[in-house]
Write a structure and sequence with these properties.
2 domains, six-stranded mixed sheet, Rossmann fold, 18% strand, five-stranded parallel sheet, 384 residues
Length: 384
């Protein structure tokens, strides 16, 4: 059976948005283009409602010629889609959100992070609650399509494509459109060819520690330019920078971030991987699995803070998570039966972990020691 985006219930994301709208006057639903933000928002406010504004739609833009006149009389929930196209609306939203009694709340959708929309984070400070949307979650799809989800990624039109060929074609078109149209609309003036080369380089660093000097040499630019490219791709949700965790251990620890292409399907498109067979035989298959598992664990657990840990002696841990005062270590292993490693033992002691979970693609859950448990990924993402 082929899934379609209309029948996949994004229950988790719906619940997150509903809870945020009860707490906050303005909720930002942020994520990459084509990840399903608009479809989700239209479950709250229909597209033909006067309370729905799509800033890529000429009639909506025309209605906002005089924003105060258009927005002030509205009651209930108001949706503004593609907010990054009109950052001038943020000061008005602050005024409207401060009214007492409050006649309306706002759900704003954006394809850029608050760091890129700096005005929003400053103007709406204390009023804006952010929800991150990153494509379909494994938790909502189920174990039966885990392999497909890993190969195609979470973008709805990639995941639900009729064939593998159609899915690959959609992702290749997405990459081109994103670089040539979407980024320039955000005011990015870097040539698309340069950013595509950079994106390919980051793909080859996927799951590795960032080395700005090496990439700068390969691209024939300076390190500050490479850093700007990385921050830009992070800000539009294409790349994840996972910061290192430091402990005063008397050991030399790695202090550069780890980098991942956030969507596994886009990673595979950058590698030219078109099928599960291609993926299984690719030299980056282990790194691909690690990045996929890292993203799904972070989506599911929503920790207060997330890091990786590594020392120059070779000890490392894929994730160090802080959640409700607990320290949780996560190691992602593409293995049939993961075992306890010296790195895990060192991390348990040195990082004072409350528990360590070894996430893998298998089906059985079992303990390795008192505080270490092997957990199938599909069970981990469904854990509360």
């Amino acid at each position: 059976m082929v899934h379609t985006s209309s029948v996949i219930n994004r229950k988790t994301d719906m619940e997150l948005v509903q809870a945020a709208l009860k707490r906050s006057r303005v909720v930002g639903l942020l994520g990459p283009r084509q990840c399903g933000k608009t479809t989700l928002a239209r479950q709250f406010v229909p597209a033909d409602s006067l309370n729905y504004f799509d800033l890529e739609d000429p009639p909506s833009l025309a209605r906002l010629t005089e924003p105060d006149i258009a927005l002030r009389p509205l009651k209930g929930l108001v949706v503004i889609d593609e907010i990054q196209r009109r950052p001038d609306l943020f000061p008005l939203l602050r005024v409207l959100a401060d009214r007492k009694p409050l006649p309306s709340r706002f759900l704003i959708l954006g394809s850029a992070s608050p760091d890129l929309l700096q005005q929003s984070s400053e103007t709406l400070a204390g009023r804006l609650e952010t929800i991150w949307l990153e494509g379909f979650r494994l938790a909502d799809l189920g174990a039966v399509v885990q392999t497909r989800h890993w190969l195609r990624g979470g973008f709805p039109l990639s995941f639900t494509a009729r064939t593998e060929t159609d899915s690959v074609a959609w992702r290749q078109q997405f990459l081109q459109t994103f670089l040539e149209r979407d980024l320039p609309q955000l005011g990015v003036t870097i040539p698309a060819v340069a950013l595509r080369r950079f994106w390919h380089m980051v793909a080859h660093y996927h799951g590795q520690i960032w080395n700005a000097a090496e990439l700068a040499r390969a691209l024939a630019v300076n390190e500050s330019t490479v850093r700007r490219y990385l921050d830009l791709m992070t800000g539009v949700f294409m790349v994840r920078q996972l910061p290192p965790w430091f402990e005063n251990l008397g050991k030399r620890q790695v202090k550069a971030p780890k980098v991942y292409v956030r969507d596994s399907g886009l990673l595979h498109a950058l590698f030219g991987i078109a099928s599960q067979r291609d993926l299984e035989h690719h030299p980056k298959v282990g790194a691909s699995w690690e990045g996929y598992a890292v993203e799904e664990v972070l989506k599911a657990l929503r920790p207060d803070a997330a890091y990786y840990w590594a020392t120059h002696n070779g000890a490392e841990l894929d994730l160090v998570l802080f959640k409700k005062g607990r320290r949780i270590g996560v190691e992602c292993k593409r293995a049939d039966a993961p075992t306890l490693t010296p790195s895990m033992r060192i991390a348990l002691v040195d990082l004072k972990l409350d528990e360590l979970r070894v996430v893998y693609p298998g089906e059985k859950r079992y303990a390795l020691s008192k505080k270490v448990e092997v957990v199938p990924l599909v069970q981990q993402v469904n854990a509360k």
